[in-house]
Amino acid sequence: MARIDGVDGKSGGPVLRMLYRFAAKRFGAVPEPLTVLAHHRGLMGANVVHELAAQRASTVLPAAVRELAVYRVAQRLGCSWCVDFGAMLQRLDGLDVERLAHIDDHATSSAYTDDERLAIAYADAMTDTPVGVTDAQFAELRERFGEKGVLELTYQIALENMRARMNGTLGIVDQGFSSGEACRVPTR
């Protein structure tokens, strides 16, 4: 249970009701992090605009590469909400969610491409404390994905670190967005 109860859409006014309807239509339910942020309308608005802008701008990398890296961060940080939501997004994008159960074996598994392995390892290095990205690792990513691609990957991994840490701190847990085996992926 979240440490701060979400704002009910019925008591939130017309703008909040419209935002909740949009979110429910897009995702099947209103994401709990949004309902909790609704207590602070300025931050909620900034978050919505930022998320939409980051999504719209992320067009350089293949979706599978980007989404696997983001998912890995959620899994490493133990954000069950992010794991749940990320698995749903991958399923809706037509990506193979069955292989998420084997993400810990990404370095040796034939289920992952070389590009995906690089992105997952980069997500691990960026999520470590302190950050463990090496010059050689960065150079390989830059060569493989180009400057825009590595910037996009870096940004998305950093953004997921923020989401996962915020949701974990606020006690926001999985909401049932994913289905099947994907929602049973263990978190660390």
Automatic annotation (TrEMBL):
Pfam families associated with the record: CMD
Domain (Carboxymuconolactone decarboxylase-like) ranges: 58-124
Region forming the signal peptide: none
SUPFAM superfamilies, per database record: AhpD-like
Natural source organism: Actinokineospora spheciospongiae
One Gene Ontology term of the molecular function aspect: peroxiredoxin activity
Gene3D superfamilies on file: AhpD-like
Record's protein name: Carboxymuconolactone decarboxylase-like domain-containing protein
Organism domain of life: Bacteria
